[in-house]
Every structure is written in structure tokens, then in C-alpha cells.
Design goal:
The chain has a two-stranded antiparallel sheet. Helix 1 packs antiparallel against helix 6 and helix 6 runs parallel beside helix 8. The chain is globular. It contains nine helices and two strands. By secondary structure, the chain is mainly α.
Length: 255
């Protein structure tokens, strides 16, 4: 656990920030290569980068504030909401925010939305690989106490110390890497526009819900056993299934 990579006076670069940045870069690069199959110039995919980053940060912060309002924001100055550099982002909020940004970008730039979504979808899973490694370095999103041979021990001062815990960040990162390769493979064999994005929603919701079984960092659970991420996963799963069945197939598409 090494949250800070390097400091230059007042400027601090964290491992989490670096890994998130690498995740965005890797995602955009792979998407730009994939986009050539759909007729998107590499510059067109790179052009959406700032939209995705802005949407992801706004969405991730918004969902975090909503989820932890009473614990961290109630009774404090409203300016605390905007202090992202102190930490506090939720992955699902970032996914929702970047998805909305993609819809807006596609409408303004007159780009076919579902073709663009399919190009970006595998790279979302790849970005999560880097992001979870950042979580490991930061010591957040840690697992429940366990005595398994692969349990990890965070240093003194961490909430879980001195217990061994499930390496949930490694679970999540490894599963997302496998998921990325699957989505990239499926992309070359897709049957209709939007299929890869819908598969991303369904697959990630299932993977995330599985990893959540081993998480130990939540202050509260719904109904005593359901984590906030599992609750959101249910909505993401339903959305993916609806898209999977309702998106038009080639025979139904005009022209």
C-alpha cells in the first residue's frame, strides 16, 4: 500500500491517479484501433476522450456524494462536494456519467451511437484493470477478513490492520482483464450494433456482484446483506438485458 507516488512541494501525484490516467489512455488507444473496423478515424475516438473523462468524474463524484451524504457531507460546507482531490469516486457513477457523455457527443457530432458504444465497451473493462490496481495501492475497496493463503495484510493505520483480508482489488482487476479479452473477441463476431455495450453492462454487473461478496469496507448494507454496488448492479444488469433484446438486428435496420 503506497498511496503517494511522488511529491513536489504542494503537488502530490498518487498511484491511484496515475493508474486511472493509464486506464483512460490504454482504453482510448485500444478503442481507436478497434474503431477502424467501424470506419471511425482514430482521431474521432481520441476526440471523445475529454467528454468521457469529464462525464466519468462528474458521475463518479455525484454518486459518491449521494451514497455517503450523511457520513461525510451532511452539515459541512457545500464546497466539500467539489473537492475531488480528497478522494471519493464511485465506479458506477463514472460509468453512468461517461455513458451520458457519449450519448451527448454522438448527438452533437452526428455519430452512430451504438456503433460508437461498441467500440468503447471493451476498453471500459480494460480501464477497470488499471483502476483496481490503483485501489490496491491506495488501500481502498478492501476485502473481508480471511485466513486464506492468498490473504493480504495492509500496514498499520489501515482499517483492516492487523487482519488478513481478501484481495478484492486483485479479484476485480483479474476478472476485468479476462472480460476485456472476451469483449474484444466478441466484438469481431458481433451480430448487431449495441451488442458489445449491452454485454458489457450484463457481464460487469455479474462480475462486480460476485466480487462484492468478498468486500469488507462498507459502513452499511441494504437488508443486512446487499452492498450499494450490488443494488446498482441490479439496475445495470436489467438495462443491459433490455438493450440486448430490444436493439434492432441488421434485418430490422432500414437500408
Amino acid at each position: 500500500m503506497h498511496p503517494v507516488l511522488v511529491s513536489f512541494g504542494q503537488l502530490t501525484i498518487t498511484w491511484y491517479g496515475l493508474m486511472v490516467a493509464l486506464g483512460f489512455l490504454a482504453g482510448l488507444w485500444t478503442a481507436s484501433r478497434r474503431g477502424l473496423r467501424e470506419g471511425f478515424a482514430a482521431e474521432k475516438i481520441l476526440d471523445i476522450g475529454p467528454w468521457l473523462i469529464g462525464g466519468a468524474i462528474i458521475g463518479a463524484r455525484t454518486l459518491y456524494v449521494i451514497s455517503y451524504w450523511h457520513e461525510q457531507f451532511a452539515g459541512k460546507p457545500l464546497t466539500e462536494i467539489f473537492m475531488v482531490w480528497k478522494g471519493g469516486l464511485v465506479y458506477y457513477g463514472g460509468l453512468i456519467g461517461s455513458s451520458l457523455a457519449t450519448i451527448l457527443y454522438a448527438r452533437l457530432k452526428k455519430v452512430q451511437l451504438w456503433k460508437l458504444a461498441d467500440v468503447l465497451a471493451p476498453s471500459v473493462a480494460l480501464g477497470s484493470v488499471f483502476g483496481r490496481i490503483g485501489c490496491l495501492m491506495n488501500g481502498c475497496c478492501y476485502g473481508r477478513t480471511c485466513d486464506l493463503p492468498w490473504a493480504i495484510h495492509f500496514p498499520p493505520g489501515h482499517q483492516s490492520y492487523p487482519n488478513g483480508v481478501h484481495p478484492t482489488q486483485i479479484y476485480d482487476s483479474s476478472l476485468n482483464l479476462l472480460f476485456y479479452f472476451f469483449l474484444a473477441w466478441l466484438y469481431r463476431r458481433k451480430k448487431f450494433d449495441g451488442q458489445i455495450f449491452a454485454t458489457l453492462l450484463v457481464g460487469y454487473a455479474l462480475l462486480r456482484s460476485f466480487v462484492e461478496l468478498f468486500r469488507g469496507d462498507y459502513p452499511q448494507y441494504y437488508f443486512g446483506m446487499i452492498t450499494p454496488a450490488q443494488l446498482v448492479s441490479a439496475g445495470i444488469l436489467i438495462t443491459g438485458l433490455i438493450l440486448m433484446f430490444l436493439l434492432p438486428r441488421p434485418a430490422q435496420q432500414p437500408g
